[in-house]
Design a protein that fits this description.
The complex is a heterodimer of chains A (111) and B (111).
Chain A: E1 4-7, E2 10-14, E3 19-25, E4 31-37, E5 44-49, E6 55-58, E7 61-65, E8 71-76, E9 85-92, E10 99-101, E11 105-110
Chain B: E1 5-7, E2 10-13, E3 19-24, E4 31-37, E5 44-50, E6 53-56, E7 65-68, E8 75-79, E9 88-95, E10 101-102, E11 106-110
Parallel strand pairs in B: 2-11
Antiparallel strand pairs in B: 1-3, 3-8, 4-5, 4-9, 5-6, 7-8, 9-10, 9-11
The chains are: A mainly beta (111), B mainly beta (111).
């Protein structure tokens, strides 16, 4: 079945640093979504990408939909303590509406 | 409310018991999804409804899992004869397009 490889698995960074994480797939996706999940809560949508090559920002977050449609990255600039959490990429394929998720990137920020 | 709600938030069941998990989607959202999230993993697709029609149930792990959405709004995920491997967080999401919005989840623990 479809699988997403998300890296890194975890990161421990200093407050104020920039963060980058990415997702790759062996399959093509039509939509890439990035979510953040806090402990005990459901995933919260951060950014949605719809076109190959698209670069979208949401505050300190920037995400890109890869040209091959098989990858995406998320950047967080000037990280702050509340950025702590688990970040998931998710892809929606050409057929069907379900999302396929990566295993997540755990972000820890040292203040 | 404005978001997806789920109840109960926590459920402890003895092995062999039946459980029912409820999802109230965002008002007006046609599509409703159920996902299962094991500890330390990303959510995995279970089933998808468009209005009251269950269009995809390919992710349901066994015939002990059953979902319904009889009036095209509230949905119930039922698990019969629960097993320890059913312990997970069950997430519901609704959408009116490509973006899916998640509820807080129900954490099921089977003893």
């Amino acid at each position: 079945g479809q699988q997403l490889n998300q890296s890194p698995q975890s990161m421990f960074i200093q407050e104020g640093e920039d963060v980058s994480m990415n997702c790759t797939s062996s399959s093509i996706f039509n939509t890439w979504l990035w979510y953040k999940q806090d402990p005990g809560e459901g995933p919260v949508l951060l950014i949605a990408l719809y076109k190959a090559g698209e670069l979208t920002s949401n505050g300190r977050l920037t995400a890109q939909f890869g040209i091959t449609r098989k990858d995406s990255f998320l950047n967080i600039s000037a990280s702050i303590p509340s950025d702590v959490g688990i970040y998931f990429c998710a892809g929606r394929g050409e057929y069907g509406n379900k999302l396929v998720f990566g295993a997540g990137t755990i972000l820890r920020v040292k203040s | 409310g404005a978001g997806v709600s789920q109840s109960p938030r926590y459920k402890v069941a003895k092995r062999g018991q039946d459980v029912a998990l409820r999802c109230d989607p965002i008002s007006g959202h046609v599509s409703l999804f159920w996902y299962q999230q094991a500890l330390g993993q990303g959510p995995e697709f279970l089933t998808y409804f468009q209005n009251e029609a269950q269009l995809d149930k390919s992710g349901l792990p066994s015939d002990r899992f059953f979902a319904e959405r009889p009036e095209g709004s509230v949905s119930t995920l039922k698990i019969q004869r629960t097993q320890q491997e059913d312990s997970a967080v069950y997430l519901c999401a609704s959408s009116s397009g490509a973006e899916q919005f998640f509820g807080p989840g129900t954490r099921l623990t089977v003893l």
